[in-house]
Amino acid sequence: MNTYSRFDISIESGHGPWVVDTEGKEYLDFISGIAVNCLGHAAPEIQKTLAEQSAKVIHISNLFWSQPQIDLANALAEKSGLDKVFFNNSGTEANETALKIARKYGYAKNKGKKTKIICFTDSFHGRSMGALSVTGQEKYREPFRPLIGDVYDAVFNDLDSVKALMDDDVCAVILEAVQGESGILPATQEFMEGIRQLCDEHDALMICDEVQCGMGRSGSLFAYQTYGVTPDICTTAKALGAGFPIGAVIASDRAVEYFVPGDHGCTFGGNPLACACGLTVMRELFENGLLENVNAMSKHLFGKLNDLKEKYPDKINLVRGKGLLVGVQMKEGVKSDVIASAQTHGLLLAGAGNEVIRFLPPLNVTEEELDEAVARFEKALKE
Ligand code: PLP
User: Fold this and answer.
1) Which atom of ligand 1 is nearest to the CA of 93?
2) 358 CB under 6 A from ligand 1?
3) CA of 131, closest atom in ligand 1
């Protein structure tokens, strides 16, 4: 269907941060399947995991137990500071699940009253009817109304706008610690702490959508950890399977106390193959130095891009983000031309929101690869 405006490139293969198109042209891929391919293309670790697990069992449904699911749930719970995990296949589904958990929580606390959900301007949480309802961008929502009710938009990074909407009828506040799709905009420390406090005061659940900023991309497993704030629910997907589809909702015992058999389900969710991929990613992050690499490479990339900002003040406004989730905000009107020109120089970059170009390299990217990407970006800027 005509749902995506695609670049005129057809990709045949990939290796590490590189992809090769059907004409044989190589590109440095700093889109990474939109923040998914954390280990790069054709990662040996994922190839091995897929081969070994698929030779044992791929899918069994949630009517049975499997060790990869148990191990991944334990690892996510332990490293997130939360307790319980539900698996599904995508970020949208994870958010949909989180909203249902919140509504069930409100139903148990004050049936029919505690149903309000607060979300934020310029947020992005997915395109199903529930996830779309809490996506604070009218251009996505408008044609699909009526959406789910009792949803209110506050202004991102404006705590007063949340206070004005907050009361005991709120069951959840959903936010991205770093807004991704709308231009790599990190929440302020005060905002994250303030949301936590308001949720505590009104017995509402704080939901952090970590679909884009999570799984190490921000420099910690989850971006909320860089603020020292723990939500009640965290949703993740994208990089969790390094390219194999998997999503997860991680929640505190308190949040899911009332979520019981019959409330939710997912046929494919948490199948052994997907969970084995997730476990491989967790192992790379925590046992094989991937998180350390994100932090070291982040410094390097920010340094290089800020140098370009000094050199091209007529083209670049600012560089912002966290870890290897980096946005370069361009002067008005140049973003699309620079992205197109970068492609001719063999560099793939994605746009985000107004005038922002996203740099999303694989998390195991090297200094040399970053230097090469920045050199190609500079050629595009000059052009
Ligand atoms: N939440 C955030 C923050 C996202 O960036 C995205 C996708 O870009 C989603 C949710 C939706 O995830 P998915 O496309 O896996 O359904």
Assistant:
1) 16
2) no
3) 10
Is a pLDDT exceeding 90 seen at residue 369?
Answer: yes
Taking the centre of ligand 1 as the mean of its atom positions, its distance from the CA of residue 311, in whole angstroms, is 34
C-alpha 250/C-alpha 234 separation (Å) is 5
Give 374's strand partners. none
Q: Where are the beta strands (DSSP E) in the chain?
A: 11-15, 18-21, 26-29, 84-88, 116-120, 151-154, 170-175, 178-179, 185-186, 205-209, 233-236, 247-251, 316-322, 325-330, 347-348, 350-352, 356-359
- pLDDT tens for 69-102 read 999 999 999 999 999 999 999 999 999 999 999 9
Say which residues have a Cβ less than 8 Å from residue 351's Cβ, sequence separation at least 6: 335, 336, 339, 357, 358
Nearest CA to ligand 1 atom 10: 125
* β-sheet with 247-251: strand ranges across: 84-88, 247-251, 233-236, 205-209, 170-175, 116-120, 151-154
- CA dist., res. 208 & res. 195, Å (int): 11
Ligand 1 atom nearest the C-alpha of 176 is 3
Alpha-carbon gap, residue 357 to 336, rounded angstroms: 9
Query: Does ligand 1 come within 6 angstroms of the Cβ of 120?
Result: no
Distance (Å, whole) CA 339 – CA 358: 10
Q: Are 305 and 381 in contact (CB under 8 A)?
A: no
Residue type, 297: M
CA of 296 from ligand 1 middle (Å) equals: 26
CA atoms within 13 A on the CB side of 294: 29
- pLDDT, tens digit (0-9, with 9 covering 90-100), for 147-188: 999 999 999 999 999 999 999 999 999 999 999 999 999 999
Share of the chain above pLDDT 90, in %: 99
DSSP state of 359: E
Instruction: List pLDDT tens digits, range 196-249.
Output: 999 999 999 999 999 999 999 999 999 999 999 999 999 999 999 999 999 999
pLDDT of residue 354: 85
Ligand 1 contact, 241 CB (< 6 A):
no
